């Protein structure tokens, strides 16, 4: 497969909409030509009918005018629709493709990129590349509109036609040069304005915090100062823009005067007709339209190319992990870590007996994060191996690994939907990869699992507070719940997945001591006989573990029961009971 | 815990009009001058068509080529004058609009920040936020770009019609033949566009939200192997947005098709009128030409003005929501504000219910002597946060009283130093520099005082390591702080605000357990010398308090020092402590 470039992303997106783009180009051209013809036909009516008093000529040319309007109106209507549809559809397809890449089992697209930035690639950048499908036909139409106007003009009068054709772009260039310093100044001031626009929402967003410390007046005063500064900036910017517009208007008017002068003299000489004069004046006004459209199209194309490059970068990101071998089942849940070196871990060796509840304490929280990343197959280790039942995780299909070994990260997200959908994935959406060692569960089992998981995690109490209980809705990312409630639902979800090996990372930091104790008993009971690793510093959880491993300075330092370690190991005591 | 939504008020048409008049009254001379200059600019611009018509007349009457010079010079003068006048007029209108807008947004925010929190929460947090964000932006964008364009277009339309009448009143009548079609089109469009665009905005918002959720949660989606489900959700929501956008496009293109028809009717009528009037010798060919050009020049301003109608409607809908908040009556100040005698805290027989049939607290009585610290312990839903909120004055208790230094919470002087401060687990970093964020708590604090506050809560080290120190831009769009850093920032604000009583509601909960230990030291430092009420998750916090109060189902079930409660046989707290400190229960 050749290297994925911005150009290729762009070409593929456009090729997918080729039919619509062609249709839109044809129709938009018809529209432009129609707009160009209106002043010409007005000139003809004056020339042939008003000047001569011939009723039949009047009717004839009004009929022509009607035909012109019919053409321009219908071609605009359907040309715009085709173009917009092409743009929207191309953007949509890119959006889906980007999401698909981000969610890929091998990961890598979201490494080192902020979610907001990635989401903006999938919305703004995808839309901008799509936009090219809309502006391309308009560009074609603009050029053809210019040609039609030029031909029409040159046929009435060569010198006048040349004047208008060369004068119009010249005049626009002049206006642009005159307006540029003003425009630049206003762009600088735009930043200042944008800042204040966000400030009000920001302060209202922090209303509870402001009220908590009685800072309402200070906040209002700060906003007032910012608002005043923005007012000065906006008035400056508006003044710059007004003079820019005024200059454009004046230059345009002066050019019209020149056209009238030359055209008028030619008409007075009898070189051209009155109709030709009117058409030339009209055309001088009309040409501004397609010309400014071309300037706009050019800007959009440049932006679209930049967006396509950003999209290509995301689509072509290197996978974070490899491996494609299937995992032979059934999984017993024996885990062995050898010489693991990664982000602070230095040659970690660790053995987890199948079926045990194991506590894992790291003196440095960063080491816990590193282990979570490695076990969840989000990263490849710098060196060393993790094996499950003797199979090296790095060689296995990541999807198959996750089916057998579920890592519930501390910062795992909840999703919009019902509590039930969060805990148990709707049928048909789960486990779609080949080489899956785990059997699909029946609906009855699912229901049993759901209620057992809810009870063990204390999420049944969360369900009780929702309208509709288990079928009650959660807002996006579960934000309608408190931190502690979210944590319990995420734990229920991890338990309900019923994986042969379950890794829980700090599952109880946001719950109160009463609930934590309840959860400890629940997890212990529900995971009886299957491997469960709890990475935590919480004494309540560690006390319930069969074995606890203590990792300090990136290597295994001590193992034993929680009580033994508390008694015998100063470093462990300092980490867990500080 | 769902409650009946009770949205913040929206203004009636009459209130909105009154608010607008109040904003415009001090600026009436600016408004008059702006309007006058813009009218003059438009009027001067209208001389172009008759001047061109005059050129046509000169040519048809066989005048010498040199005679063209005079109207052409006039054209040049007109160009320069109308350009300059337009620029000046637009500047005046911008000063008018922006000034009024600034005053409106400041009044809104000032009032919004002083709304009782209970009222904001009953309305749902989104209500006020969307007024401060979307609604202010909608009004600003219309004032900034819509209003000047609308003013110019309407002036152009009005004066062009007048110009047609000056040429010959029958031209004006002919041009007005287009009006019924245009009015009908606007009516037809307005009824369909607003609801459709509202749905489209919702769909686009939902698409954006889904992408943020799916992409932000990508590791979770991968871990749970829910890729297909999420891809399906993104596809469905994106397709929804596309379909609604296309419906909008269809509507707009039909709108313009109807306006094209109006253009044709008007233009034909003007041309035919010209034909008849020239034939009967009542006007010159030049006048007929000018009339046709006038009408042709109307196409653009008419399209602009009619196209802006839905923007203006949307801005009006936003405006009533802004004025609704900005015009709320001021909260009543206590008739005789008093200053607390000391830093003691008393809650006497406090009961509370958010909804009448579901009481959350029952007759809770707690006395905290000045400078002491009490930890609240209990399961979720036991009423800890409710009690904390009542003490901090966020809600008013259904019955019972809360006093600080002997003064009821409602009788405290609202303009004086804050007597009770509340910090919750909700971390929030305000957009702006770190210094600006801290000065919200004490506006006149010096840099040295800010640094001292950061140092006290153990935040000086990372704050100094920020790219620009205290001037580093943090919050939305700025340097990202960790949850623990943000919470230390909140504690530094507490130090600066310097209240006698501090209420901390799980202020260490979001930081994870390793971060929590660091924060506990910060909390202890911030509370030094204050009366403290702490809702504690980690029992180490409770162990350090002077007294521990265990709440269960809204009632106090145990109260005493950590050591007393720990030793109590069969005590709730004793059981928790055993589990917490990792000593297995005897039978285990």
Describe this structure in words.
The complex is a heterodimer of chains A (578) and B (588). Chain A is an alpha/beta fold. Chain A has 3 domains: 1-157 and 290-320, ABC transporter type 1, transmembrane domain (ABC transporter transmembrane region fold, Up-down Bundle), CATH 1.20.1560; 158-271; 335-429 and 440-576, Rossmann fold (3-Layer(aba) Sandwich). Chain A is 65% helix and 10% strand. Chain A has a 6-stranded mixed sheet with strand order 6-9-10-3-11-12. In chain A, a hairpin with a 2-residue loop joins β4 and β5. Chain A starts with 5 loop residues before the first helix and ends with a helix. Chain B has 20 helices and 12 strands. Chain B has 588 residues and is α/β, with parallel strands linked by helices. Chain B folds into 3 domains: 1-167 and 313-331, ABC transporter transmembrane region fold, CATH 1.20.1560; 169-282; 345-581, P-loop containing nucleotide triphosphate hydrolases (Rossmann fold, 3-Layer(aba) Sandwich), CATH 3.40.50. The longest helix of chain B has 53 residues, at 227-279. Chain B is elongated. In chain B, the strands form 3 sheets. In chain B, strands 6-9-10-3-11-12 form a 6-stranded mixed sheet, with helices on both faces. A 4-stranded antiparallel sheet of chain B has the order 2-1-4-5, covered by helices on one side. Residues 584-588 of chain B have low confidence and may be disordered. Chains A and B meet through α2, α3, α4, α5 and α6 of A and α3, α4, α6, α8 and α9 of B.
